[in-house]
Amino acid sequence: MNIKGALVLKKGKEVSIQRFHPWIFSGAIYSAQGEIHDGEWVSVQNAQGKILGYGHFHEGTIAARILIFGDSLPNNKFYQEKLKMCYHQRLTAGVISDTTNAYRLVHGEGDGLSGLIIDIYNGVAVIQAHSVGMYNDRELIANSLKIIFKDQLTAIYLKAPSALKSTQENGYLFGMGIVPHIVNEHGNKFFVDWETGQKTGFFLDQRENRKLLGEYSKGKSVLNTFCYTGGFSIYALQAGATLVHSVDASDKAIALTEKNIELSGFSNEQHPSFSIDTFEFLKDKKDQYDVIILDPPAFAKHKSAKHQAMKGYQRLNAEAFRVIKSGGMIFTFSCSQVVNRQLFYDTIVSAAIQSGRQIKVLHHLSQPADHPVSIYHPEGSYLKGLVLYVE
Fold first, then answer.
1. The model's pTM
2. What is the pLDDT of residue 160?
3. Domain boundary among 69, 89, 116
4. What is the tally of structural domains in the chain?
């Protein structure tokens, strides 16, 4: 790695890096040494010049993303060693199995690689670079993947950061044109379109929650709102649900859902789908469903939107409490990072009080083992969920 310069911290601002937090904010920087450009490797030093770590420089509020703590220089095997460690952690956690070949290999800060996401889809690695630094290092990352996976790897697809000041676009770093692609998740089959789909093409973070939903779906009528590609719907049908309705405002999402329903061998009679806003769909429903899934997109991506987001979560859950049958269950989620677990819980309590119904919490849900959270970076815990029993 070529270290291009150094960031010198203001006196007393080294505390966060000493606690292994990977973000250095611009307000903590006293000076920059050398001509440093966005995405380049830099050292981070305290006011006395002691090297505290190395990482990518970033033009923004987060001025540096630390990838190595301490004064040991990064070498050309840095990514290979990190990715190998990530792979073994997934093996140890039992994420990869004979029935599951779609999983997250790298989860940003949770794996000590701030700015990098890598998802594996049945031999295809999809790299999502959330920083210019990770985009710049794409070839090193791709070569490391080839070394680790050898002939098990059929393609590598790169999604560039949206804020990248360049003409570079998404594309294949290795292999090409294998879309759509079929993956297995706990034995269920799904099409994944990483080229044009949301994020890397599939929401892998709900894998274990989908499995749990299946355990409660036999003989039940199920409503899957904000369904995207129908993940929860497939699990419910495979478990023996008598009826599953999938709802999403996106025509494209509904088309993907119907494709997955067909792939799994189910009919439209068992699974009607609706391209309509969820609130619009719910307004004339009452006592129709035994199980409802509420998995909306992030209502708040920034702190400034938090208040409105909480009103949205409250309204959505209040509607579900009104619609659900007596003795029914609601799987409700928030993936907004700025909404912490307690705030989400309190908002659901508020919606429950508004409904006037007796409600019990059966499960507290989170993200799976291939989406780890560094104990030093609690911000990485973004997925929150509750399974509720409504009397």
1. 0.93
2. 82
3. 69
4. 3
